[in-house]
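Researcher: Here's a chain I'd like modeled. Treat it as a single chain, no partners, no ligands.
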Amino acid sequence: MNGRIIGVALGLVLGIILCLVVFVTANKNGKIKTEYDERQNEIRGKGFKYAFFTALVMLGIFACLDVTEIYLPISQATIYMFIVAASVGVDAVYNILNDGYWGLNNDKKKYEIFMAIIGLFNLGWSLFMYVDGRLIVDGVLSFAAINLICGILFLVLFVAMFIKSFSSKDDEGEDMV
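Model: Modeled as a single isolated chain. Structure tokens:
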């Protein structure tokens, strides 16, 4: 048990450090904080609202499953992290598609590259955990699935960024005609 606690703590610390490195590296002015204009803050507020309601609905669904004693072969901790990831995904995808994600000081290309790398790394680690027998334990999706969840989340964000970049280029082309 102590090994698991240390592993989770190390994962969290490394994740926080990685986030700080990404922000400092991918922000044009080298600051951690992203700067947004008023319109973007309004969009971000809507994204937060949709994320909040996503979490509420998912918590309600999982609570109903629990009360009706319908058990999914997923550990409780994995369910919690799935709810968090889904909420973050709803917020981020909404903001990306509505121009509320990129701050005034962000380098979009660097963020896209980081999203792809982080997503692929997490999926690769999930594959390692699966082969090692730690992803599914006694027929239950274990907490090791957090890497799978994060990998999928980051790749979804990468795809949303790619779609937005592609559609923005089309919009710019139409303006020029």
